[in-house]
TrEMBL record, chain A:
Residues in Transcription factor CBF/NF-Y/archaeal histone domain copies: 33-90
GO cellular component, as recorded: CCAAT-binding factor complex
Transmembrane residue ranges: none
Keyword Glycoprotein: no
Short name of any one Pfam family annotated for the protein: CBFD_NFYB_HMF
Residues covered by region (Disordered): 1-23
Gene3D superfamilies registered for this protein in UniProt: Histone, subunit A
Protein name: Transcription factor CBF/NF-Y/archaeal histone domain-containing protein
Automatic annotation (TrEMBL), chain B:
GO molecular function list: DNA-binding transcription factor activity, RNA polymerase II-specific; protein heterodimerization activity
Subcellular location: Nucleus
Gene (UniProt): NF-YC12
SUPFAM superfamilies assigned: Histone-fold
GO cellular component, one term: nucleus
Coiled-coil spans in chain: none
This protein's name: Transcription factor CBF/NF-Y/archaeal histone domain-containing protein
Broad class of the protein's primary localization: nucleus
Residue span(s) of domain Transcription factor CBF/NF-Y/archaeal histone: 23-87
Organism per entry: Glycine max
Keyword entries, A-Z: Nucleus
GO biological process: regulation of transcription by RNA polymerase II
Length: 113, 123
């Protein structure tokens, strides 16, 4: 029986790929967002057990989280450029202290990052 | 012998006391960070861990505020409109207004836009 050669990326989806583009150049839409199951899990933890979350709410929050990451990354990146640094790292002591505060943790973290 | 990093406690129950399902995938976070701008080139190992916790807090905060909006509307199901209301009502979520308002305008439809154009023409 004839065995087809394995595709370079191992996914077996080589039929629709043109030869001039490498498999890694493909940008999948789901890579823009965090997994909806993880987000849903965190959301459910915040609500009473008998309450429901609509699918459109989960999808909207999924977009919001990605927007949040992008927004904060851009802010931190600008800060790094201003300080002539090339790597995005973190203000270690301050950030860990912020994370250990329970009340208003998110708001504190947001303004400290 | 290799010592545990300063942030290893964050995803191993150090701060939140939870492990597993609530920790978000770090590789995906790093990918989103890299896609956020051309000038983002180098990202330290600790940054996605911090962002993972930040995202968890962000989801909790936005869900809590959205749930308040759902209660005010006397509903038991959380909808997209509740998220939109929570974003509009909260100053720190200003960066999400364009994202939320664009999704709201799709839901409402084109009739309102036509009305706006007509009023502008009349004036």
């Amino acid at each position: 029986m004839f065995n087809a050669p394995a595709s370079p990326c191992g996914s077996g989806r080589g039929n629709h790929e043109s030869s001039e583009h490498s498999p890694r150049s493909y940008f999948r839409e789901q890579d823009c967002f965090l997994p909806i199951a993880n987000i849903s899990c965190i959301m459910k933890k915040m609500l009473p057990s008998n309450r429901k979350i609509a699918k459109d709410a989960k999808e909207t929050l999924q977009e919001c989280v990605s927007e949040f990451i992008s927004f904060v990354t851009c802010e931190v990146s600008d800060k790094c450029q201003g300080e002539k640094r090339k790597t995005i790292n973190d203000d270690c002591n301050r950030t860990v202290t912020v994370l250990k505060k329970e009340e208003g943790a998110f708001i504190m973290l947001f303004f400290h990052l | 012998m290799r010592q545990a990093g300063a942030y290893s406690g964050l995803l191993c129950g150090g701060v939140s006391g939870r492990t597993g399902p609530h920790s978000l995938p770090l590789a995906r976070i790093k990918k989103i960070m890299k896609n956020s701008g051309e000038d983002v080139k180098m990202i330290s190992g600790e940054a996605p861990i911090i962002f993972s916790k930040a995202c968890e807090l962000f989801i909790e905060e936005l869900t809590r505020r959205s749930w308040i909006m759902a209660i005010q509307g006397k509903r038991r199901t959380l909808h997209k409109e509740d998220l939109a209301s929570a974003v509009i009502a909260t100053d720190i979520f200003d960066f999400l207004i364009t994202l939320v308002s664009s999704s709201e305008s799709h839901a409402v439809g084109g009739a309102t836009n036509v009305m706006e154009v007509e009023t502008i023409d009349c004036s």
